[in-house]
Write a structure and sequence with these properties.
3-stranded antiparallel β-sheet, Alpha-Beta Plaits, PaaX-like_central, Arc Repressor Mutant, subunit A, PaaX_trns_reg, 52% helix, 3 domains, alpha+beta, 4-stranded antiparallel β-sheet
Length: 284
């Protein structure tokens, strides 16, 4: 488990709903629940500061960390996709992003590829990426923020020939790999969900700390699907698709763990002295 990746999960799942800022002591204590040392956590925080994901400030002799505007946008995008309830109706159009970025700017080019993959685009050719979803505004934001609009074009197009739409999806995305990842998720978490559900139905007490760790790991794992599953419209899904089953399992288990996990977080969480009281913070 990479400390930086888990920090994204903790901020996205908890901190962003409590004013978006947290004392470093609380953060290291929470991360310690996963066996991560204070040294490892502080090193990850330093990297995230350098990369522009986090911001820091001092209040007295204490350090507090919050997500930067860039970090908040990424968390908002992730939350919108993770907790999305329904798939949009497909308009039958493909969005195409094509670029020709010079070799001298290959660092920017590589970063653009990562951003397109994160959004859910599939690679048709090295410099041509496609998506069945309307992600035009998100691509525009990325391109304009990096000042590379002179090298990138976006199209809204019909697919004429020669592959069928599902075949095109098979060419640009590894559907079998995505399905296998969902199968693994179901295999790991269905027994855990069913066991906890039975215990709760029997009136057993589930420790809040267990709920916090288990829910965080659940979200941490499920968040990985954002990098491989572009949220295909129904028309493009294969006949055997485990994404829906995995999604339902995720939400069911999440709901079981949520209350206890939130209680544990609130016991450890320490906001800055000038933060709003918890009762004034809007929870998810």
């Amino acid at each position: 488990m990479r400390p930086q990746s888990m920090l994204f999960t903790i901020y996205g799942e908890y901190v962003r709903h409590y004013g978006s800022e947290i004392w470093v002591g609380s953060l290291t204590a929470l991360m310690g629940e996963f066996g991560l040392t204070e040294q490892a956590v502080r090193a990850a925080i330093s990297r995230m500061l350098r990369q522009g994901w986090l911001e820091s400030r001092k209040v007295g002799n204490r350090s507090y960390y919050s997500m930067s505007p860039r970090g908040k946008r990424r968390l908002d995008e992730a939350a919108a996709r993770i907790y999305k309830q329904e798939t949009d109706v497909w308009d039958g159009k493909w969005r195409i992003a094509s670029y020709n970025i010079p070799e001298k700017d290959r660092g920017i080019r590589d970063q653009l590829r990562k951003e397109l993959a994160w959004l859910g685009f599939g690679m048709l050719t090295t410099s041509t990426w496609i998506s069945p979803n309307d992600l035009t505004d998100k691509v525009r934001d990325i391109v304009e923020s990096r000042g590379i609009s002179g090298y990138v074009e976006i199209f809204k197009a019909d697919h004429i020939a020669w592959s069928k739409s599902r075949q095109l999806v098979q060419k640009c995305w590894n559907i079998d790999e995505i399905n296998a990842a969902y199968a693994e998720f179901i295999e790991v978490y269905r027994p855990s969900y069913e066991k906890l559900l039975t215990m709760m139905q029997q009136g057993d007490t589930i420790p809040d700390g267990y709920c916090f760790v288990e829910k965080s790991k659940l979200v941490h794992w499920y968040r990985k699907f954002l990098f491989i599953d572009p949220d295909f419209p129904e028309e493009l899904l294969p006949d055997v698709w485990l994404g829906k089953e995995a999604d339902q399992l995720f939400h069911n288990y999440y709901d079981l763990l949520h209350t206890g996990a939130s209680r544990f977080f609130e016991q450890v969480y320490e906001p800055s002295p000038d933060a709003l009281p918890l009762r004034n913070i809007e929870h998810a």
